[in-house]
Design goal:
Length: 147
């Protein structure tokens, strides 16, 4: 399913219906490359295994979203809300997460190579086995990380 079809489905039927469809069609390739979802509210959306390379997710609300194993290479996620989002095994290489709120997010085994983490709130985030450099983490905000 391409990006426009996916977003049209969510707009027409809602996120719960999308998530049900996604569970029933878990093998379906979801191509959201370069899509503009900036400023949208997509709480609890299931975009696992989706290709969101180069997507504009600036200020997008992805609270409690399932983005496990998603490809987000080069995406713009500045100011995004990723509170309690599942980004385990996701490819976040080259992603701009500046000023994002990732409190309690699961980033275990995620690839954060080259990701910008300036002022990203990683409080209570799970970074177990994540591919991330210490200098990247120094730019992030956090009171407690699980590394």
């Amino acid at each position: 399913m391409d990006g426009e079809q996916c977003i049209s489905y969510i707009e027409q039927h809602g996120i719960d219906a999308w998530n049900f469809w996604r569970r029933e069609h878990s093998d379906e390739q979801i191509d959201l490359k370069n899509i503009d979802l900036s400023g949208r509210t997509l709480e609890n959306v299931h975009f696992y295994h989706a290709d969101l390379s180069g997507a504009n997710l600036n200020a997008c609300d992805l609270t409690d979203a399932n983005l496990s194993a998603a490809v987000l290479h080069g995406a713009d996620m500045r100011n995004a809300s990723l509170v309690r989002a599942d980004l385990s095994n996701a490819d976040l290489s080259g992603v701009d997460l500046s000023d994002a709120d990732a409190r309690g997010a699961n980033l275990s085994e995620a690839n954060l190579s080259g990701a910008k983490l300036s002022r990203t709130d990683l409080t209570d985030a799970n970074l177990l086995d994540a591919r991330v450099q210490a200098e990247q983490l120094r730019l992030a905000r956090s009171s407690r990380n699980s590394i």
